[in-house]
Write a structure and sequence with these properties.
Layout (H helix, E strand, L loop, with lengths): L18 E4 L5 E4 L17 E10 L3 E6 L3 E6 L12 E9 L5 E4 L4 H18 L3 E2 L7 H8 L3 H13 L3 E3 L4 E3 L4
Parallel strand pairs: 5-7
Antiparallel strand pairs: 1-2, 3-4, 3-6, 4-5, 6-7, 8-10, 9-10
Organism: Anaerococcus octavius
Pfam families: WHD_CvfB
GO molecular function: nucleic acid binding
Length: about 180
């Protein structure tokens, strides 16, 4: 692949979404510039499970994913937890299909399925931090996301469940683990 056609560093033994192109001399070459070759004409619906390869990462927007090497989609930056690289295969859920056919993906399950994982994350944090977290349902979404990697609404659902199960107490500026005898 010509250097000018690379949009990312190529790592040996990784698989990448690429395309064949023909230059003005009739020579065939590879390119990683595939965005214009992907389509938004698809039959995907909200909550469908899909797989695709990351073909571009924009640190302020998110990761662009080629589903089935044909369809363009976006995994927003707030969905990306951990390290992701171009060429990485991701399994995701269709979060939203826009009117123009653009697809937004999520690495999280639907809210009612994810609540157990979210509750466990909060409990783990409380156990590791002396049973105390200086967060509440009034905390900023960015602070909640930074600590737990979840949206504010997911956080509120999870602490609601923990409160209902008598696992935590909720105060104006903190949550506390209920001490069991």
């Amino acid at each position: 692949m010509p250097f000018s056609e690379r949009t990312y560093r190529v790592i040996l033994d990784m698989t990448y979404p690429v395309a064949f192109k023909v230059d003005s001399n009739g020579e065939i070459y590879l390119t990683s510039k595939i965005r214009d070759l992907l389509t938004t004409d698809h039959d995907f619906h909200e909550n469908d499970e899909v797989s695709g390869r990351i073909y571009s990462i924009n640190k302020s927007i998110g990761a662009f994913v080629a589903i089935d090497n044909k369809y363009d989609s976006l995994l927003r930056i707030d969905e990306l937890k951990g390290v992701f690289v171009e060429g990485e295969l991701v399994h995701a859920r269709v979060k939203e299909v826009k009117d123009d056919g653009k697809i937004e993906l999520s690495l999280r399950q639907r809210a009612y399925l994810e609540i157990d994982n979210d509750s466990d994350k909060i409990l783990d944090y409380l156990y590791e931090n002396g049973g105390l977290a200086y967060l509440s349902d009034k905390s900023s979404p960015s602070k909640i996301n930074k600590i737990f990697g979840m949206s504010k609404s997911s956080f509120k659902r999870a602490i609601g469940r923990l409160y209902k199960n008598n696992d935590i107490k909720i105060f104006d500026n903190r949550i506390e683990l209920v001490k069991r005898i």
